[in-house]
Amino acid sequence: MKLQIKIAASIIPLVLMAIFSLGAWSIDKANESIHNANFTYMNTIINAYINDVSKIHDLLMKNGLENVKPFVLEYKQKALNEVDALQIKENSNMIILNGSGEFVFSSSNGHKAELETVWSPIATSAVQSSSMESDLHITQQGLNEIYVVRHFKPWDWVVIFSMSDKDVHHAERQIRNATMG
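-> structure tokens emitted (181 positions)
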């Protein structure tokens, strides 16, 4: 065997292994970036909503109407209408439950009983926890979602913003398929 062939036979596998390793590393970094971008988006949306609700609540308090039930109900409805102004992604869902896990609102057309069954334990857990929950997954009853949670204490609302895990990882699969073939 010629020396050139021996050198090529020893170098080519090393180059291919380096290219494959670089591809795997780039896929991992792309997945991490996509994951972080989605959670940044989710946290931004839910924080913006909580900020809007806080402003509405502050207005209610500033006007001394916190004990006048018709005004409280009207301001809460105004806060629920703010979800439409957020223009969230199609594959996302804003769910609001009260502190005991009872349904208040959903931006999707899900059934109230199903939503309560899935999200009620998370809502009650969020009320009991002092920390804000983020970067969480739920896999229950065939539902695979990632979500962020915030508790709005003045109205005892637990606001959950969720996205389908499948939709979040769609871009990751596309990158992997393009890189690895």
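Strands lie at 92-98, 103-106, 133-140, 143-152, 157-164.
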